[in-house]
């Protein structure tokens, strides 16, 4: 039984279809890494799941409840939390205030300020600091902590390593490994394949709005995912990847 089911989801920006017939299922405790070149549609998909972008078709089910047309704030209360690209903290509020504001809108559960600090020790000394004064790594930790404060059933992480120094990425991923180990269900967008393979139980690759490769990480090679990423031939995951054969990699950075 899947905790999150995406069924033939379509999402558009005006005339541009950014997400095309995407189907994915995420079981409780799984970590699914969504990879793909710039513009593949990953952020639009994540925003659609969170309720921040209205889908043009298809369905989103949380624990078999259809949430396709449920407003974003209701989805948070039901257990879907998004850490958006760019983090979007309240810069004038302290770390603690950012966490507490989120805690007020989510579900009941084990996450509170103390448990977030246990998961992200780097925030302990910064609790009273304004979010606008934090380093990139501290901001990302606060953004993930803020999402955890809602006690989500599913945590959506959009490019947590974007713009961070390598050491900060290591710290954030170290904490993420703890979350994954404790059974948190996670869908994350990650451009770095090594990182994706390091944390994910399953990997899905998007190209031009479609899932072109999907399967268990342990059944895939980096070469297969890289080929799917650039639309070179066919992938070989359990989802039966269908590479478009076009050069989707032009102008995009290397995975
Ligand atoms: P990135 O890694 O660059 O964030 P992505 O895989 O997350 O890429 P999206 O940001 O979802 O991809 O973009 C998918 C497509 O939708 C792209 O062609 C992009 O140009 C387009 N797009 C994204 N946001 C908008 C917007 N607000 N208005 C119009 N087009 C958009």
Bound molecules: adenosine-5'-triphosphate
Which structural category do the helix and sheet elements fall into?
Answer: alpha/beta
Order of helical and strand elements: EEEHEEHEHHHEHEHEEH
Predict the CATH topology.
Answer: Rossmann fold
Largest sheet at a glance?
6 strands, mixed
The protein's oligomeric status is: single chain
CATH superfamily: P-loop containing nucleotide triphosphate hydrolases
Please state the average pLDDT score. Answer: 87
Distance between the terminal alpha carbons, to the nearest Å? 32 Å
Supply the number of structural domains. Answer: 1
DSSP E strands, number: 10
Shape: globular
Structure characterization notes:
The protein is globular, with a radius of gyration of 18 Å. A hairpin with a 2-residue loop joins strand 1 and strand 2 (16-27). Mean pLDDT is 87; it is low at 235-253. The strands form two sheets. It has a six-stranded mixed beta sheet, with helices on both faces. A four-stranded antiparallel beta sheet has the order 2-1-4-5, with helices on one face. It is an alpha/beta fold and 255 residues long. It has a single domain (2-236), classed as Rossmann fold (3-Layer(aba) Sandwich), CATH 3.40.50.300. It has helices spanning 42-50, 72-78, 95-103, 113-119, 136-148, 166-181, 193-199, 222-229, and strands at residues 2-13, 16-27, 31-36, 57-62, 65-66, 80-83, 154-158, 185-189, 202-207, 210-216. Bound molecules: adenosine-5'-triphosphate (ATP). Adenosine-5'-triphosphate (ATP) is lined by residues 13, 16, 18, 36, 38-44.
Keywords:
single chain; 255 residues; alpha/beta; Rossmann fold; 6-stranded mixed β-sheet; 4-stranded antiparallel β-sheet; globular; disordered C terminus; binds adenosine-5'-triphosphate
């Amino acid at each position: 039984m899947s905790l999150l089911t995406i069924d033939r989801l379509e999402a558009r920006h005006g005339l541009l279809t950014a997400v095309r017939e995407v189907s994915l299922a995420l079981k409780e405790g799984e970590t699914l890494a969504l990879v793909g070149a710039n513009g593949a549609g990953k952020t639009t998909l994540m925003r659609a799941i969170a309720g921040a972008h209205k889908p043009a078709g298809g369905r989103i089910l949380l624990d078999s409840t259809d949430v396709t047309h449920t407003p974003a704030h209701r989805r948070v209360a039901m257990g879907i939390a998004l850490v958006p690209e760019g983090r979007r903290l309240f810069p004038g509020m302290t770390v603690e205030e950012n966490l507490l504001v989120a805690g007020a809108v989510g579900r009941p559960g084990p996450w509170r300020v103390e448990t977030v600090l246990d998961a992200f020790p780097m925030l302990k000394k910064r609790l009273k600091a304004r979010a606008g004064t934090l380093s990139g790594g501290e901001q990302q930790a606060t953004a993930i902590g803020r999402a955890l404060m809602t006690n989500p059933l599913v945590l959506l992480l959009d490019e947590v390593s974007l713009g961070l120094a390598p050491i900060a990425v290591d710290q954030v991923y170290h904490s993420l490994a703890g979350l994954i180990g404790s059974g948190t269900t996670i869908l994350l967008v990650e451009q770095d394949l090594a990182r994706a393979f390091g944390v994910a139980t399953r990997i899905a690759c998007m190209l031009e709005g479609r899932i072109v490769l999907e399967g268990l990480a342990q059944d895939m090679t980096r070469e297969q995912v890289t080929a799917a990423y650039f639309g070179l031939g066919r992938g070989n995951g359990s989802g039966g990847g269908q590479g478009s054969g076009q050069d989707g990699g032009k102008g995009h950075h290397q995975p």
